[in-house]
Amino acid sequence: MNNLRQITTLRAAAVISSTIIGVGILSFPRYMALAGNSSAPFIAFSGVVLSFLSYWLLASLCQRFPKESLFVFSRRLIGRPLATVFTAVILILFITLTGITTRQFGDVATTVLYKKTPIEATIFLMLLVSLLSSRRNVVKFSYIHFFYLPLIVGSIVLTILISLKSVDLLNLQPILMSPTLEFWNGAREASYLFQSSFVITLLIPFMEKPKHAFRAGALAIIMSGAIYVLIVIASVGMFGAEETKLLIYPTLEMARSAAFGEGFLERLDAIFIIIWVISVYTTVYTTYYISAYLMQNLFALRDQSMAASMLLPLIFALAMLPPNVFEAYKWILHLGNAGMALMVGYPLLLWIAYFIRRAGKEASS
Amino acid sequence: MQAWKDKYTAYVHKQQQASPPEPDKSPLTGNLQADLQALQARLGDNGDLVVRDFQLFGAHQAVMLFFSSLVNTEQVREHVLKPLMAGPTGHKEIPEHMAGMIHYIWSTAVQVTQGTTTTDISVLPDAAVKGELILLIEGVPEALVLDMRQIDMRGVEQPQTEQVIRGPREGYVEKLENNLSLLRYRLQSTDFRIEISPIGTRTQSRVALCYIESIADSGLVAEAMRRISMIDTDGILDAGYIEQFIEDQPLSPFPQVQCTERPDKTVAALLEGRVAMLVDGSPFAVIVPALFNQFFQTVDDYTERFIMGSLIRIIRLIALSFSLFFPALYVSVISFNPELMPTEFAVAISGGRAGVPFPAVLEVLIMEVSMEVLREATIRLPQMIGGALSIVGVLVIGQAAVGAGLASPITVVIVALTTIGSFATPAYNAAIALRMLRFPLIILAGMFGLYGVMIGTILILNHLLFLESFGVPYMSPFIPGKWRDLKDTLVRVPLWWMRRRPSFLHAQNNDRLSRNVPAVHVDQILRQEGEPSEQSPADHNAARSRRHQ
To answer: InterPro entries per the record (chain B) (predicted)?
Structure first.
């Protein structure tokens, strides 16, 4: 009963996919349309493939150390000082990510639906809820994601299905495009959304079958990737590429124009936003949780709840830092670049160290 | 009998004296007067303490001592006093030595089913207050303790808080023996275990722990015993006391053990692999572990056919979410997002709200609080007055509040729906938790609109997801998520489809149905009655008999 390895592969996949589906879902079609006009879905798909590769790099490494998290075995591979520096960099990355994600959420919430609520209150409440739930252990953490995922996926898929009837296939042609610089930039940007799959490093020591870590992530990325691609298809197909570029939140517009029969509720987008709050919560919760976990490990704090509480003012200040919506989006792109470099570079470095050590061990024996 | 005034002076006099002597471990002396005095000193002056001295077989000085309030005096006269005074009846002679006297009396004279002998005087007072009769004989350093306890109790009645349309009508009563017999009568299995031990330094209430040995997880039984053994208090007056000592999270609004008045419900829980606790003097059984989904299930779900049972269960779930969310959603839509309503409806609502002087949140809060007051007021009134008062409250006050412009008609509708919804939740303790949680949700809705409701909902759901009852996640089986266990949650599948016990209880024996029962296929269910089966006749018969169950 008190077995620590309680997280099944399915539940790990649920954690990753509910983390990936988050705040970005609203503006994602715009970026894809900007990068590739009518072939936006193709770019999104390429982004999914890219993130799939980077996830493979990370997960297959972690699978080799089924008993420890990344931050523990990295010390053995590259030495304590260097590992600490990298852990600190990852910590800063995730703290900033949490802050800016919450900020983005606040911007959307105040401009679209909760006009009378001050953005500070919106952000603070969201962080507070994440803080309160960040005190629990990893198994409970996975429960939360597992419970909310059907709600999130179900409502998004429903919205997509309803709006698919107004898709004009002409808007989606040509489907393919030649791999220009724009294409790669777009694909890279798309893959940023999947960076939170990093959470697998926390889960592996608690998984029933750590060897299935890659499988879990693959399942999650395929599922959430499919949702993202479908959203791009639906909104670009509905509005056309040029109009999608002009909309700040194309997905929301899509939900708005999806009438639900004659309708007891006049606007479906409100329901969509309500569910979207949950999906943002699961995302912010994960990044908050990773930050608190790293902070506790880095400073050897006694418990995670203390680390989580200490983070709250810092993250809140970070969230309030960008002066406007556009700055916030610029920040998130920079963060994405930095994250990309780290998420690819660091596992690569560890892989190299791993092979060198293994070669050394074989030579000595 | 002394007059009250004499009693008063004697009491004051005794208080001024030194504290009563500590219970001594000394053995009985055999000196009747000395032993009797020591006993009476411990028991004190009690109006219902009977000390009856008599000549044993017309030859020996003897005394019997008991509480007339706990013992049937007529039975004492018939089965103890009469044979002892009359002398030997059978062929056996009275022993020469006094040493064999106690054994002789026990084996030939008294006609009582349970009794012990003891030489320790310190256990005698406790035996007396439990309803046992003590017999002391001059010259014998041993006492005979006879179980003569008889307490009058109300008879078995229909349970007040858990009524059913179809199902047994018996409910627990206060007396533990009766309740245990109600259980044994339904569960005639050699594996059924009842462990009884007293708790409470003063009340010595007997607590019974029931489980089925070959089903219940031994870890669960051990954990229940461990938690009960940690209870160290002076009095347990009801099963609710036990609940508060053993629950996982006292600060949670949600009940983490299940209380029931129904023996059939208890047996069903035992068969699933749960553990039940009963307390002498309480008409409630406490069942652990308790999960959220148990609180909207009733006996009717299982006794009625499964389609109706499932539908009614879904309706109950809707009612439950009504009672939690409806007022908060109303407040946030009215004050923050009126554009969500269809235009004609919004016009009608704002027309109704035209004269109301308060903001929507205050209006709803006032109405909800007065509804709670009304509910609390009627709940303890005698039924004749209660009915009248609730009519006055609902009809007159509601109508007058709208007429006076204090509340809009739609608010009254919302409040009424909420209250009715909360009454549709079968478990009172869970219903009250949800009813109270709607107040913070209303306030959040008034402050932050739909976003506040959402945040509040996430907080409540997270709390439920984090909560555990005896090591079982409270939201099982939704999390950790086993498809097999979902058969008895939002819907109830047919009994012949629930082949296994719930996996989260870690039962030792997992099979509900015999393994010989063939699995039922969908085409068998959908096949028309009377249509010939393509399978062998034996299978056909099995399917038929199953359908007729």
So the answer is: Spore_Ger (IPR004995), UPF0353/GerABKA_families (IPR050768)
Nearest CA to A292 out of A146, A133, A139, A149 is that of A133
State whether B480 and A263 contact (CB < 8 Å).
no
**Six token digits for residue B278:** 């009963």
Of B410, B442, B473, the domain-final residue: B473
Q: Indicate if B449 and B335 belong to the same structural domain.
A: yes
Give the nearest partner residue to A270 out of B337, B452, B459, using CB atoms: B337
Chain B residue closest to A263 (CA)? B342
b/e code A77-105 from CB counts within 10 Å (16+ = b): bbeeeebeebbeebbebbbbbbbbbbbbb
Q: Does B478 touch chain A (CB under 8 A)?
A: yes
Please identify among residues 153-212 of chain A the ones whose CB lies closer than 8 Å to any CB of chain B: none
pLDDT tens by residue, A31-67: 888 888 888 899 999 999 999 999 999 998 988 888 8
CA distance B537 to B55: 79
Which residues in chain B are closer than 8 Å to A138, comparing Cβ atoms?
none
Size of interface A-B (CB pairs under 8 A): 87
**Contact assessment for residue A229 and residue A47, using Cβ atoms and an 8 Å cutoff:** no
Q: Would you call B448 and A125 a contact, using CB atoms and an 8 Å cutoff? A: yes
**Token pair listed for B502:** 């719930």
Distance of alpha carbon A353 from alpha carbon A347, whole angstroms: 10
Interface of B with A in 181-240 (CB under 8 A): 217, 219
Examine residue B169 and state whether it is found in any structural domain, yes or no: no
pLDDT for A87 beyond 80: yes
Structural domains of chain B, count: 4
What ipTM score was computed for the predicted complex, to two decimals? 0.91
CATH code for the structural domain at A9-356: 1.20.1740.10
Expressed as residue numbers, the domain containing B278 is 176-290
Closest CA to B174 of B267, B265, B285, B70: B285
Phi and psi for B285 in degrees, rounded to 5? -105, 145
**Are residue B366 and residue B467 in the same domain, yes or no?**
yes
* B473 CB within 8 Å of a chain A CB: yes
Q: Which of B340, B462, B466 sits opposite A265 (nearest CB)?
A: B340
Do B495 and B489 meet the contact criterion of CB atoms below 8 Å apart? Answer: no
In a domain, B276, yes or no: yes
Same-domain check for residues B216 and B122:
no
Chain B residue numbers touching A132 (CB-CB < 8 A) = 459, 462
SS3 category, B286: strand
Q: Quick check: is B198 in a domain?
A: yes
Higher pLDDT among residues B159 and B59, named by residue: B159
Are A232 and A29 a contacting pair, CB within 8 Å? yes
* Residue A334 CB neighbours (<10 A): 12
Task: Output the CA–CA distances (angstroms, integers) from residue B154 to B158, B160, B262, B403, in the order listed.
Answer: 12, 14, 16, 49
The C-alpha angle with vertex B114 and arms to B110 and B117, in degrees rounded to 5, equals 75
Distance (Å) from the alpha carbon of B443 to chain A's nearest alpha carbon: 14
Average pLDDT over residues B253-269: 93
Which residues on B lie below 8 Å from A266 (Cβ)? 339-343
How many Å apart are CA B229 and CA B244, to the nearest integer? Answer: 14
How far apart CA B366 and CA B345 sit, in angstroms, is 24
CB contact under 8 A, B454 and A140: no
